[in-house]
What does this fold into?
Amino acid sequence: MNTIKLIDLLKLPKEKLSRLKLIFNSDWDYDPNNTLDEFKLWLGDRPRRFELLKMYSHGEADLVRESVKTHNPNGRKRYISGDYVLSFIPFGSKDWLLVNAYKVINDNKVFVEADESALPEVAGYIGKLVITWADRNTMNIVMRDKDAISRLTVKTILEQPYDTVEAKFPGYGNVNLSWSELKYVLHLQTWQTALENQKGVYLITDTATNKRYVGSAYGNEMLLGRWQAYAKNGHGGNKELKILVEEQGLDYVKDNFRYSILEHEKSATNDEAIIARESWWKELLLTRNPKFGYNAN
It folds into this structure.
């Protein structure tokens, strides 16, 4: 697979590239007793945790988009008038989701005045562009070095903006989710309704190794319950996947696993029939062979 550099994708003109600034916003705790008055007027007196991706995908995308246009809560400036800014939030252990793009036209306030129409080259990627940057543990980084920016790579471009994924259920044959997407959609009523009364056989693909895991959902769990287990701990109780998570950490799952549905049946379907189909898929995809898969049996 060819690696696409962020700069090559955006094709920004030189005058914008020379003033380009990338902001990597980490999750943060708002404490009204330890911040500026302008923040208090905006956020009130209630402490809260800003879990940016969760907020972005759970109805608070506008709040996230505005929050990434501010200087730091303690008053330290992150912006200079004339900057062209791309703002990102965490999207996995090493990945970042683009949530806003703008030109700073007044940096004299905590909430900078910005022109969100100044980067039309980027407009179509907001909420969809995911880039990889390994320095994930550094908080609230400002990157302006053109050489460093040119090394950033594109991880993926989502089919639709992440804050609109509520999305109707796409149909069983069209499910193809990252771990972060899986964790999100299982909270949506449309997805819960589609999965809660369906047995079936599903596929987990490790995009780093191309290994696969075939699993089945039957009994009282159905597809919804089975996938909720994966969203909770990454391995769902499966032997080989549990070993992988213990060795590599949950971040490995977040970065590399994708989930899809091979077959689905109504809840009245006999459990043995589902198990038989699971075994058939294991044979077809060779997932019991450790070279190709994670199935232990």
